[in-house]
Amino acid sequence: MGIELGPDSSQVLLAFAVYLVGVAGLGIFSHRYLRRGEFLQEYFLGNRELGAWVLALSVAATAISGGTFMGFPALIYSHGWVLGLWIASYMVVPLTTMLLMGRRINQVGRIAGAVTVPDILRDRFDCPALGILASAIILVFLPFNLVAQFKAGGLVMREAMQLRPDPAQLLRQQVNDENQLVLHWRLSNGLETSYRVPPLSRSGHWVLEQTLLDHEARRLEVVWQDALVQYRQSVEYPMPRWRVPGFTEGLDAGYLLGLIIFAGTVIGYTAYGGFWAVTWTDVLEGLVMLVGALVMAVLAVRAVPVVVTETDTYTGLAAASWRLHTLDPQLAHAPGPGQFLPWTLAVSFFLMWSLMGPAQPSTMVRLMSFRDTLSMRRALFLISIYFSLIYLALLVIFTCARAIFPTEYMNRVGSRGLPDSIMPAMIRHLTGRHPWLGGLLLAAPYAAIMSTVAAYLLTISSSLVRDLVERSLGREISRGALRTLSYGTTALIGVIVFVGALNPPEFLQYIIVFTGSGLGCSFLVPMLMTLYWRRATKVGVLLAVLGGFLGVFVWYLLGWVEGHSLSALERYAQAVHEAHNYGQPIPPAPHWAQWVQKHLAWLPGWGRPRVDRFTPLYPFGFDPLVCGLLCSVIGGLFGSWWTRPDPQLVAKYFPE
User: Fold this and answer.
1) What pLDDT is attached to residue 39?
2) Domain containing 557: what range?
3) Cα-flanking dihedrals φ and ψ of residue 632, to 5°?
4) In a shared domain, residues 159 and 175
């Protein structure tokens, strides 16, 4: 099936192409560094030669992901100014990252000759089990994050292409039990698909005979009639879809093509250039993100409609705040609409950002790679300024977005799209007359996603190649074999994640919080014990790692069980209702779901209103990371006081 680009897509794609050519050039340039020195040190660690500017932009670009430019804007748009409190502690992440671990992890890494985070844990305590456990935890959490990041990359690329709707044929229209209008289509390639239009008011009905099709514009007009008013809504034809095995209705052609371009680019330069490719592209991507956010902030403030009252005239940010307060006063105050951020969760997220950031394996690898202490100190200053500018700009942009689009992206009746689509929607609105500028601004979220994906790909492949193959199996591998294995592993992981992203999750921000808190709780306390506590033992660190991992994972697992049991019971209730209406046999009840709801309802956090099916249980109102940190601390202290450290290892890593 052919696809047609939108009228302004060529200018947008040209701006994108300039950025992608720069990324590819840096990947090729970086490959020459791999020809000198020890291969693994260069490929996974850059031979510990990062200076201040490169270190600062590399750490910043790795920390800022698709969640920052897609999920975080959606939360600002939905909940207002309270997101300033939600993200506040991210401003101190550079301090906690550099001061907690920076100098010491670099020093211990050099003593041990460590290439990865599991290397440090293994060598500090001469315990292969620690290295294997750390690698396994990395392999559990990071692929989840990568699938979400790949999804975001595909969506941004789809927005850049702006494909025209398919010249489809409307087969039939019907109204379901939820009063939604269901449109059934046959696409130009023979695929059949359908989508639903929600009711346009709380009461009324669809007037099917008044539906009008405009095949030239590839849109139709549907009509909703209530007691007093007749509503009309324009609905686009379905987007082109391609046949893919295993997907009955095919896949969105724009998303699939965008995903292929994204995956090919990021997998290619990461596998080919290794750490140096990721680092130098981080520098480019960090600059693109900063410039894009600042330009958008200026345009957004200027785009807010002026507010004229009897006593005053408001423009810019003042007008945006006035409109938010008029729309919903809770948008301007904590805890936000629907009690979004009660004090317990505010405390949890303050811990989440300030303490979980330093404990991410991809960040710790950056801290192992800087040249000297002076570089670290300068980088600390630069990152602090960078984070403050980026997050303040995003807060301003999407507060203005809510003033410009009061309900259009709130996932409500008649809305244009989901909150996660507000970033590209805002870019299109701000750059309508200058599509090439829209392409450059879309490169900002694309750069954020690429930098994070590249760092995570390298972290996973290093865990497999260095920790599980070379160290754990104890095999001597030639430089050529290591090179081939490293390239192949990085590429293979990327391909596997690409396949997972074909049918991606819908909860981008929640899955990023899950992986961030899971990795942070698994590594923060164990790494601090490893670096600073002479009395720490391998048993204590093992228990600290397991305690942090289970303290987070169990609450997410229980939340998943509760969510799926509720879904099963809802589907059963709907099936019983339909069986009574149409005289069909009643299906068997989901006894497992009934058992779960009956026997697990005593758990703290059970029954709390759920924002998303991936939302965890919040024990006593706190995020699971609080439980994870407590379990990690208790396990580490108990195990270390129960056993004794090796005096030779203490002398090696804590010289007098």
Assistant:
1) 44
2) 504-656
3) -65, -45
4) no
